Amino acid sequence: MSHGARVIRTGVSSGGAAAPPATASSAGSDAELMDGAYFRSCAGMLKVAQMISLLVGFISVNNSPWTDYSAYSYFQIVTMCDLVMILFFYMIHIFRIYRKLTCVSWPLAEFLHYLIGTILLLIASIVAASKSYNLTGLVAGSIFGFVATILCVLSMWSSYKVSCITQSTIHPW
């Protein structure tokens, strides 16, 4: 009986499940380009809710008379930067870019984005709330900033759970 090394070919790489074999009919289909299930997933809907609350907060502050220019310009910059980054990660998941760019740890990048963005958004919302002087548009903008902060904390928690807990269960020792 030979105990030499054997190579067993499987369709699964270390990065995840095997991709279905490409056929001539499915090579150009939209199902391969976009992840339709991510639209309906909890993480996808959470990102959409974050983007909506950030956009409503930005519009509320933008269309109100300002009492403190620096406070509200900071709030607008933070909300727009956070909105653009959330949209960026949303597109990465929708178009499955994470499968093509494997040199980037996407769960770690998303976790770090949420960590930094949530802290900045919390600071901006506190400053906006303290400088609102009961003007309804400014109060509404800061409330939507706090709502977006809570949604970002939920996303950060789920991102941490995915990136750290699943990596700790992979090790065979």
Helix tally equals 7
Largest sheet entry: none
Number of strands: 0
Helix content: 55-70%
N- to C-terminal distance: 30 Å
Detailed description of the structure:
This protein has helices at 30-33, 36-40, 42-62, 69-94, 97-100, 106-130, 136-170. Mean pLDDT is 82; it is low at 7-30. Helix content is 69%, strand content 0%. It has 173 residues and is mainly α. Helix 3 runs antiparallel to helix 7 (136-170) and helix 4 (69-94) packs antiparallel against helix 6.
Q: Would you summarize the structure shown here?
A:
By secondary structure, this protein is mainly alpha-helical.
Per-chain topology:
Layout: H1 30-33, H2 36-40, H3 42-62, H4 69-94, H5 97-100, H6 106-130, H7 136-170
